[in-house]
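Researcher: Structure prediction, please.
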Amino acid sequence: MGISLPYFNLYCYHLGFNGLQIGMLSAFRTLAMLLFPLIWGRLADRFQTRRLIYILANFVSAGLWVFYLFTADFYLMLMITVCYEAFHAPIISFLEAFTMDLLGDRKKSYGRVRVWGSAAFIAVSLLLGKIISLYSIDIILVLILAGSAIQAVLSLQIPAVERVRSEKISRAGSEIWVTEKRRRIIFFLFSAFLMLVSHGTYYGFFSIHLEKIGCGSTFIGMAWALASLSEIAVMIHSDRIFRRFSIENVLIFSFAVAGLRWFTLFWATSPVIILISQVFHAITYGTFHIASILYIDSLTPDEAKTTGQAVNNSVTYGLGMTVGFFISGFLYEHIGSFVLFAVSGFIALAGGLLLVLENKNKISA
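Model: Predicted structure follows.
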């Protein structure tokens, strides 16, 4: 992900794809994240085969990536993307469920596990920026394939943590929605959906935005790496944060900072200010992501933990990012990336406002 998130869309831009085509590729990637984590998560909870499905998803997705090496045609790449994401999409939500089970009563220290992903992202982003400046951006396809193959082999070592099967499992997918917590889940998912819609411009066009204002590939790598670096302090101390502040308050604060971050990118052209804004990633992704995982885990029954994380992942990183990519891809050619970031700011604030209103209703009730 340290290769694909910062550079795959930039690779497509260098192939000559326009903003709408880049937005469509990104949107179809995340559209798969809406559908397939739900399907695989439901199967994993129903038949208690989470580990087997996780290993399968890693190996098949790595194999499908090979086809990117043989084409630069937009429609063929679109087909490859859909097939690839059908197996790649559930990997994250399965990892979240594995982690929650393994942590047990230490779930608020989740960030200390997740921080290793941030460290890897930082190292790869910084290193790759220099590699691209020396060679060509085409090299990212081979490097992603190599990384995927290594990840597939490592997936064989994932601990076999499975819960005892019970008759409740057959109702796992529906139990989430029939409890008294249904309203809180729905409001949260809708708010989180808006948060990820607001990230569409960032994940889809941030690298392109930086290149167009005169920043080189090394700076682009630094900017992405700094964003991940900023997560580390938050994740290492996640247990302290969530002992001191409620999950709801952390979520609301994350929305407010997201609005500030996108409005900053709306007017900023200074490399220094842009790098400062990247530090906000500690809140807009770091605390928001951890709080989301904990919030969903607290509201879902034991028999549906994989499904719960899959629903969260699907609605946010799936549907939210899909809509965000489509909107940003469509509007990019008409209003440009600066105005797109302003639109993103308003969307993030709208999501935060919904969560504030639901929090007030819960308190008054």
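Model: The longest helix spans residues 305-364.
Researcher: Thanks, that helps.
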